[in-house]
Amino acid sequence: MEAELKTLFHRDIDLITRQGIETSRNYLRRHEILSSAQVIYPPMKE
């Protein structure tokens, strides 16, 4: 998926889980990302 998005947007793409952001020690980055986050694909149900 990362390669497909890179091709689509013509730029480097970083994919990370919400949990990865929520546990980040960098509170400024964490706040900025979580305040502007948008769901693109909803989580798959198991």
Q: Could you give a short description of this structure?
A:
With about 45 residues, the protein is an all-alpha fold.
Question: Could you explain the architecture of this structure?
Answer:
This protein has 46 residues and is mainly alpha-helical. It has one domain. The chain is globular. The mean pLDDT is 88.
Taking the alpha carbons of the first and last residues, their distance comes to 20 Å
Structural class: mainly alpha
Strand content: under 5%
What is the helix fraction of residues, given as a range?
40-55%
Give the overall pLDDT as a whole number: 88
Taking pLDDT < 50 over at least 5 consecutive residues as the criterion, the unreliable ranges are: none
Number of helices: 3
Q: What count of domains describes the coordinates?
A: 1
List strands and helices in order, with pairings.
Elements: H1 2-9, H2 18-22, H3 27-36
Keywords:
3 helices; mainly alpha; 46 residues; single chain
